[in-house]
Amino acid sequence: xxxxxxxxxxxxxxxxxxxxxxxxxxxxxxxxxxxxxxxxxxxxxxxxxxxxxxxxxxxxxxxxxxxxxxxxxxxxxxxxxxxxxxxxxxxxxxxxxxxxxxxxxxxxxxxxxxxxxxxxxxxxxxxxxxxxxxxxxxxxxxxxxxxxxxxxxxxxxxxxxxxxxxxxxxxxxxxxxxxxxxxxxxxxxxxxxxxxxxxxx
Length: 201
Ligand SMILES: N[C@@H](CCC(=O)N[C@@H](CS)C(=O)NCC(=O)O)C(=O)O
What we know:
The structure is a single chain. The protein contains nine helices and four strands, in the order βαβαββααααααα. Strands 2-1-3-4 form a four-stranded mixed beta sheet, with helices on one face. Helices cover 56% and strands 7% of the residues. The protein is globular and about 45 Å long. By secondary structure, the chain is of the alpha+beta class. It has helices at 12-22, 39-44, 63-74, 84-114, 122-131, 133-143, 156-170, 179-189, 192-197, and strands spanning 2-5, 27-29, 52-55, 58-61. The two termini are 20 Å apart. The longest helix has 31 residues, at 84-114. Strand 3 and strand 4 form a beta hairpin. It has two domains: 2-78, Glutaredoxin (3-Layer(aba) Sandwich), CATH 3.40.30.10; 84-191, Up-down Bundle (Glutathione S-transferase Yfyf (Class Pi), Chain A, domain 2). Glutathione is lined by residues 10-11, 33, 36-37, 48-51, 62-63. Residues 10-11, 33, 36-37, 48-51, 62-63 line the site of glutathione.
């Protein structure tokens, strides 16, 4: 039995996207982030966060870890690369998304959307908008001459990077100065599995 805890309006969307791409049969518990610190959920994830994947009594937390695990377990002929060099590339782009891109997006999100208006700092948001240009250029250059990050096929590397970047779409960030990355991003977000996740609770 495979269960994913976490509303699609959270980082859980990344894992729901992976589950949908992989065609895994799963149960979705659309837990709100406000319930993530309940005693019951702390038993699943002592950090008090979603997403959490439960499989056969084991709990896995951290969205990127969940997705790499799912891809390796269920995606041999699809999302999971066929050789170790490909695995390395999948780890690289997943960790890059979390460390180079996500902190900037969180800074923009907090200072433009999440914090009460009086506590927002537009200078900090603007600094993050500038800072994210560097990793976006890296992405743009890496995608030149290829359809996806690892070559011709969509893999977990694309899913994880596009899923982290999806906040950029929500924040309406202008990606036009990195057009190759922008086109790849639209192509990834348009996949039916991701579109389905947008309809989930
Ligand atoms: N690095 C973790 C972050 C998890 C995380 O912060 N999740 C948020 C929702 S997007 C959450 O559970 N917030 C509830 C809380 O902190 O109380 C991951 O990628 O899974």
